[in-house]
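Renewal narrative, Specific Aim 1. Our central claim is that a sequence can be written position by position from structural information alone. The example that follows is taken directly from our test logs and has not been curated for this report. It begins with the structure tokens describing the chain, in the order in which they were read.
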């Protein structure tokens, strides 16, 4: 049985379709991902893939889709020209459909820039989804780029004694070499998020000190 001949057009069509699926999935992940500082602070992942990795997938598959789309147009330029010119009895209004398609795309693009209704609802929904990942104060970093600082510098910014923080981490069973390691490196080495590292080293609240009895105000005497 003779082997089926290799068909370049089929390959290009399949690459276009598969890259579109991958780009769409990564686009959904980027859409629902928390803001950059929250994603890094909580070590957010979707399907075991981080936000940065999803972003890289989206960029590269988008580039692949663009290249495959250009190749697809080149391979089918004759058919495309016939669609636009109109095939007698089959396709008689190619330019009209093209104009409508371009106008719809332009309207969506302008809506994204101006945030005019109803497009702003999608953008507001996106902002709500991203903000919903911050359920408690610990989910957000104390300041932008906190995980990139060394333990010593991070403690200095948070008014924490770095030596005590280092002891707390070691007592909690974390592998920490010295104060020069970044919070992100410490978290990654111990398979946890920078937020969890901060929960271990942050200063506990000082308990309220009982006031002396002599300083406690006495209740007013009620005249009988």
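The sequence written for that structure reads:
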């Amino acid at each position: 049985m003779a082997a089926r001949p290799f068909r370049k057009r089929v390959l290009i069509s399949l690459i276009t379709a598969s890259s579109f699926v991958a780009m769409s999935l990564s686009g959904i992940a980027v859409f629902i991902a928390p803001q950059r500082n929250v994603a890094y602070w909580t070590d957010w992942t979707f399907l075991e893939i981080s936000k940065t990795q999803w972003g890289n997938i989206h960029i590269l598959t988008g580039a692949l889709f663009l290249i495959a789309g250009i190749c697809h147009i080149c391979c089918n330029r004759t058919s495309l020209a016939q669609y636009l010119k109109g095939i007698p009895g089959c396709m008689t209004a190619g330019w009209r459909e093209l104009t409508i398609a371009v106008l719809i795309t332009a309207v969506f693009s302008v809506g994204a820039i101006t945030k005019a209704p109803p497009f702003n609802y999608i953008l507001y929904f996106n902002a709500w989804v991203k903000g919903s990942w911050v359920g408690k104060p610990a989910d957000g970093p104390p300041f932008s780029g906190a995980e990139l600082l060394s333990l010593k510098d991070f403690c200095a910014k948070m008014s924490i004694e770095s030596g005590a923080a280092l002891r707390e981490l070691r007592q909690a069973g974390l592998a920490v070499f010295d104060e020069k390691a970044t919070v992100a490196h410490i978290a990654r080495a111990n398979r946890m998020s920078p937020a969890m590292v901060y929960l271990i080293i942050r200063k506990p609240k000082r308990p309220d000190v009982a006031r002396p009895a002599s300083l406690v105000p006495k209740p007013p005497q009620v005249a009988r």
